[in-house]
Amino acid sequence: MFLRFTRLFALLTLTIGWSAVMAQDTVRITYGRMTSALSPIQFQSGNSVNEVLYLSTEVGRSGLITDVALDKMDGPTTTILDGVIIRMRHSTLSTLVTDLYDTAGYTTVFRGTLNNSTTLGWLTIALSQNFAYNGIDNLLIMFERRNGTPYTLAETSRFGYNTNSPNRNRRINFQLVPPIVGTSNLTSTDVQPNVALVMQGTTSSPALLGSALMMYPNPAKGEVWLKLGNSEDITQAQVYNANGQIVKTLTLSSQTQRFDISDLAAGIYHIQLSHQGQAYSKRLVIN
């Protein structure tokens, strides 16, 4: 009976393929133990923004981001934080300078109210929309409060950070004023908040999958060829746009295969393979 069950499980695994095997991992990016009431989320400001850049070398892997956690250092557990919006996007930037508030290219991954019940430690936020991080570009996270309740200092929680050079954070801080708009300036700052990312399908060693994929021409126009190595059990590849959204799924039926991409607009994309909890992306430029 056990042998029959084992064979059935193996058959189901082969049938549904690699997409059902998803490892989960938590990536903690910790810079220091200084405390801030202004980054990455502000309690005293009902309208505020922190736009924070995390390097791909700090994240260390690709995968599906399902949760974000903030390093709570002190503060009450009864303050409910409303009007919270979290956005994510890929970026080739390595530093952030003072610039206008701009949500273009971002994917909104959370919108709502945070339960601030954590006493100390990581305050976890389950995302309402997962973000497919490619592991190649840097990761921009925008933490915003819009039309939220401004709290007093006694009601405020503070989060862990350290100073960083060059600056990889820019922010704006308001109290009782209209919401932030595109003419609002985000001021560059050296405050770099700690963050944790819960990820599925991650890997710190993508070389195995990477060696299994060749892609040409690149840049491409109208069509692209994919060549797989010794990975017969990989049957699909996903094409992600710069916002981390799946725009096309490619069915892999042979080791060398041509794909029509004439329906995709010019820009930067990533083709991702996943297998046994590992994920690997290659950048594709479409002219």
Briefly say what this structure is.
With 287 residues, the protein is mainly beta.
Describe this structure in words.
The protein is mainly beta. Helices cover 8% and strands 50% of the residues. The chain is built from three helices and 21 strands. The strands form four sheets. Strands 1, 2, 4, 8, 10, 13 and 14 form a seven-stranded antiparallel β-sheet that branches. A hairpin with a 6-residue loop joins strand 15 (213-216) and strand 16. The model is unreliable at 1-22 and 202-208 (pLDDT under 50).
Fill in the keyword field for this structure.
287 residues; single chain; Immunoglobulin-like
CATH topology of the largest domain: Jelly Rolls
State the end-to-end CA separation.
56 Å
* Largest beta-sheet details: 7 strands, antiparallel
SS element count, helices? 3
Which CATH first-tier class of the largest domain would you pick? Mainly Beta
Q: Detail the poorly predicted runs.
A: 1-22, 202-208
Count of domains: 2
**Residue fraction in strands:** over 45%
SSE order, one letter for each helix or strand: HEEEHEEEEEEEEEEEHEEEEEEE
Mean pLDDT level: 82
Q: What's the total count of β strands? A: 21
- Radius of gyration over all CA atoms, rounded: 21 Å
The helicity comes to under 10%
Shape: elongated
The CATH architecture classification of the largest domain is Sandwich
Q: Structural class of the secondary elements?
A: mainly beta
